[in-house]
Structure formats: structure tokens, C-alpha cells
Amino acid sequence: MKKLRIGVDIDNVIAQFVPAYLERHNKKHRTNFTIYDIKSYYLCDWLNIPEEEIVKNIFEMQVGGEYMLLKPVPNVSKYINILKEKGHEIILITNRVNADDTILWLKIQNVHFDKLFTIKSKSWILDLLHLDYYIEDNPNNAYTANKKGIKTIIFNQPWNRMVKETDTMKRAKNWKQVIKIIEDD
Fold it and tell me: Which CATH superfamily groups domain 5-15+71-184?
């Protein structure tokens, strides 16, 4: 099998960010949102709070150490490590601001990777990385990658159900399916 360059988003693909954010939000606002209530990637569309407050909360979670408590997506380390063992290059691409904590969290979770890019806008870096595959939960980023000619795997979440599969855009409900999509190609 050809050695592939595989780009992977972190939050909601490797780390379960939205459940942790909702737990924090529900405590603060005395609400009871679940991940299944979120039908858009943009939390402000569903949580009835301004985007600025969400951005502030996410920043506080990152610099305050709450990201270190995020749970991994089930079996993520097993399957990413299978890809690494097959010689594929794993490149993580995230909007996170704290690379040191992210690297430490990934080590604790036993997620092996080759490179990590922390960047605000993923669009331009996708041009530079020459990826064979990109795994993402954000519909906009998935469409952008796919339009750039990158085979894209949309990691199934309630907020990306509107994304339709094509020959170059596949949906995976879990990491076992990610491996199958890559191996069947």
C-alpha cells in the first residue's frame, strides 16, 4: 500500500470537545443540552449565547487546563496507531492555541503523530501539506479540503449530518470505519 499523508482534525475527531463544552455550559446556564441537540458546527446557533462568549469560554478551557481533561474519541489511539504502523504520515491540524498541552494530552492518550499545526484558518495550510486524506468534523473545512482535491472523511457528528457522501467525501461513524475507508481505496 502507498504511504499516505493523512491530515486529522483534533477536536471532535480525536478529543471529545463538544460534550465537555456542553457540560460546562449546562452548569453555568442551568440548561441540559446534549451533543444531539447541536445541529450546526457553530454552537452559538443552538446555545442562545453570543459567539464572543463561546470563544471566551473555549479560550478559558484551553489555557485553564480543562482541555487536558477531555476524553478521547473511542478507540482513536488504537486506529491512529495502526495507520502509523503501516507507515502513513499523521499530520494533526487544529485551531487550538496551546500546542504544549495538546502534545501532552496526545502523549497521555497514546496518540502517535508526525506533525502538529495549530492554526486559525485551515484553508491555506491544506494547500501546503499535499494530503492524501483529511479527517474532519466541521462541514466547512471538509468541503474546503474536498474542493482542493483532498479525499475527505467527514467524522460523523450531529452538526455535519447534512454533508452528502461522494466518491471523494466519505462519512465515518467511528475510527474503525476511517481505517476501512482508507484501506478500501
Answer: HAD superfamily/HAD-like (3.40.50.1000)
